[in-house]
Structure formats: C-alpha cells, structure tokens
Amino acid sequence: MSNLDQIAKLAGFSKATVSRVLNHSPHVNPETRDRILAIMKELDYAPNGNAVSLSKGRTLQIGMCAEGINEVMLPFLNSFVETASQNGYQTIVYTSGGDAKKELKAFEDLRRKRVDALVIITCVNDHGLIGSYCKYGPIVSWQRMRLPEILSVAMNQYDGYKLGVEHVIGQGYTRIANALGRPSSMNTLSRLEAYEDIMNKHSLAVPPGWSRTGIYSIRDGERLVGELLQGAKERPDAVLCANDLVAAGLLNEARRQQVKVPEELAIVGFDNTELAHTLGITSIDNPIAAQAQNAFYLLLGKLNHEETVQKKLQFRLVKRATT
C-alpha cells in the first residue's frame, strides 16, 4: 500500500481528495483538509517532489549553462539562484569546460523535459544549433546573441565603455589603451567600437598595438604592464580594462614598478565589484545582479505565457583613486 493510499484509508476519504490537499486545491472542506494534514503529520509523510512536479507538468528546475564559474559571473549566478528559489524553482548549473559536446547536455535536458528552461551565461556551441532547442522550452541568455529566438538580458557594453573613455579624456589623458576579453565576443567588439568612436570624436590617435584581447585575470593585468610600458617609445597614460580583476593586476604591477597611479597611468575597471571598492579603482558599474533578476522573470513569463516588463538598467561610472 502506498503512503497516499494509507493516508486515504486512515482519513476515510478518497485518494483524489488527499491529492487535492497535497496540491493546495481550494475545493476541499476545511475540516477535511485539517484531518488529512493531521494524519500526514502523524505519519511523517513527505510528498514525492517528482510526482508533484509531473502532476503540474513542470520540473520546477531551471538549468544554467556556462563554460565554468569565475569571479565575474558569480553575482549573476548568485542573484539568479536566489530569485529562482524565492519563486519556488531550483537551479542546476551545467559547466562544460569549453567542451561543445558536454555543453549540449544542458540543451538535451531541456529537450527531455528534465528542466523547464535554460539561462545561458556563456556558451561555445554555434548559436544556430543552440537556437534549434528553443522549441523545447524558453532559453534566455546573459551573453549577447545574434539570434532573435533567444532572448537576451545583456546590456550593450558600448554604453558602459563609452563612459570610461569619455571620463579619462575629460581627466586629461590622451594615450588610451584597452585590455579586453574574448576577441570575437559582441561585448569586446562593442567596447572597441565605443573606444574608436570617442577617440575619433576627440581627434586622438588609436595605436593598433594598444588594444589587447584575451586579458581576463589579475595575472593577465600584471603581465600587461610590462608589455605596454617597458621599452616603448610612447607609453599609454590610461588603460581601460575588461573587468576589475584585470584592473587590480595592472594597479598592483604598476605600483611594483613605481609607476605613479593616476599621475602617470590611469586605470579604469569594469563591473564595479567589491574588489574595485576595496582597492580604490575607478570602475564602470554594471548591474549584474539586476540582469539576473530580469533573466529569471523573463523565463517565468514565458513559462506562464505572460508578458513581462524588464527592469530598465543603465551603466554608471564610479570615480575612485585610479583616475
């Protein structure tokens, strides 16, 4: 005899009535509900989560797809997990390590209804292939996508980077270098476009060797100081960075080499993390946690077939000691 059958027999009601109590149906007499709940408590009965999910046609689970977890994406991941939990959803994090076949497991789980929806933090598969999975459930991306069927909550980093370039020029710096991330990403291309537009607007030179890509970490930032400053006839007097980790590395190595910041070298980070606050690094505030909330509610709206209004977000510059 199943637990449900046992509860029904002891309570003197049908199994269907017990199921209605489990599913919080309003169509149950209060006295009946109280009696069934009392027996459940007496038996220490816990409903099968999978069975309840199946009865509702959902797993109440959302997958998160990423190459790996790093400090930059933690605010997004933490905010999304917390928001999902507050709304009764669990999250499953799929990490691929850059392996395209391994990454597809997340999308195959969407096809097999093991998760209700997916949020892409980063992905390495062809966007066209990823888009073909949209018919199995909603997919939202934090990464900017070129596919209309995959909705994105990413902000155009052209707008944020423009703030940084305008700021250092306004502070009197004219020889401006870039420490950027993935060379082919839309974010990197948008940042370069903003840099070139603003430099051209102010009739400033754009030396090709001063826009470096593949710069992600503190160690990368430290190495870049030597590459840009040592033995060069003309040295940059400002560097805009892919993130605050790179900016911290630049600041650390500049101090070791007795390069005065900001007198000889201005440094601007990106994301405005606690690290930037602690080290006094000027940074572009990127509302990552709020983007994660937008991502969850966009998915929830799709699952519930409801229109959702996204919270309007914008970048802002936070000036500190490095400029």
**Average pLDDT taken over every residue:** 90
Class based on secondary structure composition and strand pairing = alpha/beta
- Taking the alpha carbons of the first and last residues, their distance comes to 73 Å
Number of helices: 13
Quote the beta fraction: 5-15%
In helices, the fraction of residues equals: 40-55%
* Main sheet characteristics: 6 strands, mixed
SSE ordering: HHHHEHEHEHEEHEHEHEHEHEHE
- Using only C-alpha atoms, the radius of gyration works out to 26 Å
Strands across the major sheet, in which order? Answer: 7-6-8-9-10-11
Brief synopsis:
With 323 residues, the chain is an alpha/beta fold.
Question: What do these coordinates show?
Answer:
The chain is α/β, with parallel strands linked by helices and 323 residues long. Helices cover 45% and strands 14% of the residues. It is built from 13 helices and eleven strands. The chain has helices at residues 3-11, 15-22, 30-42, 49-56, 74-86, 100-111, 127-131, 157-170, 186-201, 218-229, 244-256, 274-279, 288-304, and strands at residues 61-66, 90-95, 117-120, 139-141, 151-152, 176-179, 211-212, 238-241, 266-271, 282-285, 316-318. The strands form two sheets. It has a six-stranded mixed beta sheet with strand order 7-6-8-9-10-11, sandwiched between helices. A five-stranded parallel beta sheet has the order 2-1-3-4-5, with helices on both faces. The longest helix is centred in the last third of the chain and has 17 residues, at 288-304. The N and C termini lie far apart (73 Å). The model has no long low-confidence stretch (mean pLDDT 90).
